[in-house]
Q: What sequence folds into this?
């Protein structure tokens, strides 16, 4: 973003990479897949690079309101500097906090989740996907809480997956009844509490019951937990956990 502004250019979208996209080795592959799609579509976008910091979402979920507001106000100032109007996010937690909580602090933007963006491009005919690209591999989808229950984004991921494969199967618990992966609300960063079974194991079992070869996810926390669940069940060699952006990039061979 800084380089473009120095040249007098102003991109249409700010692509918010997020902490996982910057630091998690597995999720970096998802970011690369999505940026390849953006480049393929010739979208005008930029990232903040080293100027990007955390949105403050984990701090607020963990109860540290002061730290959240410090982080949020810092991000809002950066957005003002670059005259940001439209934001594309790949993390549902970033999407939710930008869309629903930043306005309370004066941060008002058009916030777009990457699945909404990709589905829109498909519907407009700009992104053409071959339904046989996954070679009839069966796929199931895990609903992230912050996309589904928090923001009612249920149809877009399913519309995309139905274009990618003819063998889409739903988990028994899906949409508003879907089970959390176990990492939301800052649970990702704390030890498990006492109980008979961890949530991520229960949710992985839901996915395995479908006998799908691919578990599609759309959140960095969900990806971590579902991948851990597959390892716990010793099924990581048979069942893959892939982000929807990775599936699209794979179908486009980019």
A:
């Amino acid at each position: 973003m800084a380089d473009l502004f120095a040249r007098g250019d102003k991109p249409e979208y700010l692509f918010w990479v997020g902490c996982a996209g910057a630091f998690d080795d597995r999720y970096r592959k998802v970011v690369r897949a999505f940026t390849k799609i953006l480049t393929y579509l010739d979208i005008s976008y930029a990232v903040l690079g080293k100027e990007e910091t955390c949105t403050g979402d984990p701090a607020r979920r963990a109860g540290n309101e002061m730290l959240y507001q410090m982080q949020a106000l810092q991000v809002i100032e950066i957005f003002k500097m670059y005259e940001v109007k439209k934001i594309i996010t790949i993390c549902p937690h970033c999407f939710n906090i930008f869309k629903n909580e930043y306005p309370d602090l004066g941060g008002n933007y058009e916030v777009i989740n990457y699945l909404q963006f990709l589905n829109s491009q498909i519907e407009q005919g700009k992104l053409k996907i071959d339904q046989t690209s996954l070679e009839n591999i069966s796929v199931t989808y895990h609903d992230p809480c912050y996309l589904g229950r928090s923001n009612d984004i249920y149809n877009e991921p399913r519309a995309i997956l139905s274009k990618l494969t003819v063998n889409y199967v739903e988990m028994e618990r899906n949409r508003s009844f879907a089970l959390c992966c176990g990492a939301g609300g800052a649970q990702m960063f704390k030890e498990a509490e006492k109980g008979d079974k961890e949530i991520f194991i229960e949710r992985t079992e839901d996915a395995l019951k479908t006998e799908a070869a691919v578990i599609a996810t759309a959140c960095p926390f969900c990806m971590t937990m579902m991948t851990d669940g597959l390892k716990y069940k010793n099924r990581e060699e048979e069942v893959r956990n892939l982000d929807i952006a990775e599936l699209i990039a794979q179908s486009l061979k980019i």
